[in-house]
Write a structure and sequence with these properties.
The complex is a heterodimer of chains A (about 300) and B (about 300). Chain A is mainly alpha-helical and about 300 residues long. Chain A folds into two domains: about 45 residues, no CATH class; about 210 residues, MetI-like (MetI-like fold). Chain A has 17 helices and no strands. Chain A is globular, with a radius of gyration of 24 Å. About 0% of the residues of chain B have low confidence. The longest helix of chain B has about 30 residues. Chain B has a two-stranded antiparallel ribbon with strand order 1-2. Chain B folds into two domains: about 50 residues, no CATH class; about 230 residues, MetI-like fold, CATH 1.10.3720. Classes of the chains: A mainly alpha (about 300), B mainly alpha (about 300). Chains A and B meet through helix 1, helix 2, helix 3, helix 5 and helix 6 of A and helix 1, helix 2, helix 4, helix 5 and helix 6 of B.
Chain lengths: ~300, ~300
């Protein structure tokens, strides 16, 4: 096949130095252009961090980055919140995210093991069904799910936001793990079986530990998606005590309007810290995840 | 007790044996989830799409009433379609062009590739969050960052987020700002193109522009197609930024009334859940149609090797 040939050629190429010949001026020009692009991309973020240390009237009047009056009290004021401490929002967000992660890791890996390694009647149909659910817009299930959770008395609780994850609703991660398990040598399973392992023991002691790279990807992206999610949290949570970070920010915005931008930007900055820490730690992993599967933050 | 070693025959027979019980056990969570949270709700919303339902009284059968209302009797629905269409038609090509251009420059073996790639990707990681939407509101405010910078060159900018002509533009800018994700995908694709092709073209005297159109574009077209499909699906579902910038109203003058936002208003503010379900199914049809058209035209420009 063409792709195999291409791979062969590439392997050959990669054993040699790969940099193309550069005219020195051109290389400088390329760096210059890239630096400009990078600056434009990062400027709003840097400006947000800088502004979060400025008094509100200075944010409006002065575009420079370095605050003339350093104002760390923005953070203290934002942390106090409008009616509820911001720490509650962070706690709630972390709780939901961690619960969703646990659910995804367990349920998706169980399903993936069955799809990748077990023979059963209807496997093809079940697998195809799972792939189809991957492409459905979440909107089609939104209204009936709300009705269902309303009937269960779960509106205004965290359950609708994490319980579905215990039932492998994120087909994307199932697919990711199926592909990963298929790349593991089957001999390992065989050896385990000959030693008397049941499928459960094979999963628990052989496949699950080896699945770690795929699990890390799952954990990172489940966290980012759950933490950044707004729509579901908006419709299910009404009680301020249950508000998450996005809802807390929105409440802040609604009640203070454009008057207290200092604390507002301080809390927005704070809200981006957990995903940023994750990104800095797992940069390679995240970029590779995006490159190979089209995952997005 | 005697130990029997399985023979090759035995092994092969055992391998083809079905493990239905085990499979059911492993798949039970997924199966329950599929029935309770996906298949069941889909059927339910298909039924609700033909009813009027407010969560309190029983659903009332309307026939095709909801769909007739969408296209005959609801200017806001048509407005939300228009807004979403502009967002998709302008935003998607723009962000893909930026992504491709930067990826091509980055792929030339420059030093600092990892740094540039991470820095440019970073906005994509944060993009859909409320925190960034809040920031955006501030950046495009009347006295926000953009106008402060414009003031340097003597231009008095408008309040971008409160003018109907420009509000949608700020959301498109937010979408384009996140071109890092498609760029990373392009970069992975560009790396698969063998350098020999370019060397051969150079020997034959092809210019860089010619090389781009005759080598890079055809070989990259599957990736471009993948990115295009992905961006289209995502654009239809954009919600948080429009909600935050317009305080949930879709304003000014309904200029940021995204499809998802209008669906939210009808379903969860007005509690017209039948209409919201009908809109959800209409979205499936519309998004499906757009993706299908995309797939149809793919055969004219996407090359999957020889």
């Amino acid at each position: 096949m063409a792709t195999e040939r291409l791979t062969a050629i590439r392997d050959d190429v990669e054993s040699r130095p790969t940099t193309r010949r550069w005219v020195p001026g051109r290389r400088l020009l390329a760096h210059f252009a890239l630096i400009v692009v990078t600056l434009v991309m990062l400027y709003p973020l840097v400006w947000m961090v800088a502004s979060s240390f400025k008094p509100t009237d200075e944010i409006f009047s002065q575009p420079g980055l370095v605050p003339r009056h350093f104002e760390p009290s923005n953070y203290a004021e934002g942390w106090k919140g409008v009616s509820t401490a911001f720490s509650i929002f962070i706690e709630n967000s972390l709780f939901i995210s961690v619960a969703a992660i646990i659910g995804n890791v367990i349920s998706c890996s169980l399903a993936a093991y069955a799809f990748a390694r077990l023979n059963f009647i209807g496997r093809r149909i079940a697998y195809a069904t799972m792939l189809v659910t991957l492409m459905l817009p979440t909107h089609v299930t939104l209204v009936p799910q709300y009705i269902l959770f309303n009937k269960l008395g779960w509106v205004n609780t965290f359950y609708p936001l994490f319980v579905p994850h215990f039932f492998a609703v994120d087909a994307f991660f199932v697919l990711l793990m199926v592909q990963f398990i298929r790349s593991l040598p089957r001999e390992l399973d065989e050896a385990a079986r000959l030693d008397g392992c049941s499928p459960w023991q094979t999963y628990r002691y052989i496949v699950f530990p080896l699945l770690r790279p795929a699990l890390v990807t799952t954990i990172i992206f489940t966290f980012i998606w759950t933490y950044n999610d707004f729509f579901k949290q908006l419709i299910y949570l009404n009680d301020v005590q249950l508000f998450t970070v996005p809802l807390g920010l929105r409440q802040f915005l609604d009640s203070t309007g454009d008057s207290s931008w200092g604390p507002m930007l301080a809390m927005s900055t704070l809200a981006l810290v957990p995903p940023l820490v994750l990104f800095v730690t797992f940069q390679r992993k995240i970029v590779d995840g995006v490159a190979t599967s089209g995952l997005k933050g | 007790m005697t130990i029997t070693y399985p023979t090759m025959r035995g092994q092969r027979r055992r391998r083809t044996r079905y493990q239905n019980g085990w499979a059911l056990a492993f798949l039970a969570p997924w199966l329950i989830g599929f029935l309770a949270f996906t298949a069941g709700p889909m059927l339910m919303s298909l039924y609700l799409a033909f009813t009027k339902y407010d969560l309190l009284s029983a659903p009332k059968w309307l026939g095709a009433g909801n769909f007739r209302r969408m296209f005959g009797d609801d200017p806001l629905f048509l407005q939300s379609l228009k807004v979403t269409a502009i967002y998709v038609v302008v935003g998607t090509p723009l962000s893909l062009c930026f992504a491709l251009a930067v990826a091509v420059v980055l792929n030339r073996g420059l030093r600092g590739l990892d740094f540039y790639r991470s820095a440019i990707y970073l906005p994509s990681l944060f993009g859909g969050s409320v925190a960034i939407a809040v920031l955006w509101r501030k950046v495009f405010n009347g006295d926000g960052l953009v106008n402060q910078l414009l003031a340097f060159v003597g231009i008095q900018g408008p309040s971008w987020i409160s003018e109907p002509q420009t509000a949608l533009g700020t959301l498109i800018a937010l979408e384009v700002w996140q071109f890092g994700a498609p760029m990373v995908i392009f970069l992975a694709g560009l790396r698969q193109i063998p350098r020999e092709f370019y060397e051969a073209a150079q020997v034959d005297g092809a210019s860089r522009v010619r090389q781009f159109w005759s080598i890079t574009m055809p070989l990259l077209s599957p990736i471009l197609f993948f990115n295009l499909t992905l961006q289209l699906i995502r654009s239809f579902q954009a919600f948080a930024p429009a909600f935050i910038i317009s305080d949930g109203s879709g304003g000014p003058a309904d200029s940021t009334l995204f499809y998802s936002l209008y669906l939210y208003q009808e379903g969860f503010v007005n509690f017209d859940m039948g209409y919201a379900a009908a809109m959800a199914w209409m979205l499936v049809l519309l998004a499906g149609a757009v993706v299908a058209v995309n797939f149809f035209f793919a055969k004219f420009w996407v090359h999957y090797g020889d």
